[in-house]
Amino acid sequence: MGLILLTSCDVTPADLDCQQRFMDQIYACVTEQGMDFNSFLVAITDDALDLLSSSTNATLQSPQVFRSTPLNDTDKFREKICSVQKSIIECSFQAAKTLIATPACARTALGETSSEAAFTQGLLTNDQRYLIKEQLEAIVGQVDAICAHPCRDALLENMRSCYTDMGLDADIFISTKSGGPVIGDNRYDVDLFCKNRTNLVTCIKSVKDQCPEADLVLGTIDLDLDFMEKGFAVLCEDQEAYLQSLDCFETHPEEVGLCHSVWYRQVIRIARDAQDSNWSEGQYFREVCR
Asked: Which of 25, 41, 117, 152 is buried deepest, with most CB atoms within 10 A?
């Protein structure tokens, strides 16, 4: 089934200006990489184009789309897309950023100026900036989906297997329970964890090294393996204090929450001072643990 752009007679060419300019820029981003735009749209799937076209409720004056790439060549073309993925995405983001900052694009299809708060909350679906953002997400999301390395989805589960392989509780890896156990919840488990922590960290880092997109995944959950390793070392140095703290977290949640809030603000301040004064890692941790 061929790809088409949906049409509507309810929107004037003037109203399409910002969206049209954005699509023109996307066309340039793709063709500058030596690729046929129609084949690009086919390769990132029909669904992506349906979202692009339906989100605008208008006819975008980009070239008519047809299947210029045979189905059996689509995979090969996708490989070509992925080889220049970074350039296409960066170019697309820059195009969207420039247009969103343009005052004329802050007008809705009815010509009304949209408030910044409404745009931020995504309430005005006719806001030209909102529609550009929606188009950008559709394109970038599909390109990212077809170029994602298979290891991306399995990374955290493979890291969790490092725990089970050593007889440790895998549930404490990235625990979603606030104030929950980090290295175990009883003396036996804590002792076992600390005896195996070096091998555990080595295993986890090995899994990371085997996945080209590990940094992307870990970045989305704010997991820094080096800091995690240092945290394990601190907790294992005083296992008794760690075990006593678990009861405190369970029985005094409000006080712990307040303490965490104060501590978090202090750490942010210390991190800012460390960056401004170019502290060494040792200086930073001495101040944090003071």
From this structure: 41
Question: Structurally, how many domains does the chain consist of?
Answer: 3
pLDDT tens digits for 90-140? 999 999 999 888 887 876 555 555 555 555 555 455 578 888 888 899 998
Q: Give one DSSP letter per residue of 70-83, joined into a string.
A: -GGGHHHHHHHHHH
Confidence (pLDDT) at 59: 38
Q: Does pTM surpass 0.70? A: no
Q: Are 164 and 286 in the same domain?
A: no
In this structure, the answer to whether residues 175 and 229 fall within a common structural domain is: yes
Q: Do 79 and 134 sit in the same domain of this protein?
A: yes
Q: Does residue 10 form part of some domain? A: no
Long-range (24+ apart) CB contacts under 8 A made by 144-149 are 144/85, 144/89, 146/43, 146/44, 146/45, 146/78, 146/81, 146/82, 147/78, 147/81, 147/82, 147/85, 148/213, 149/211, 149/212, 149/213
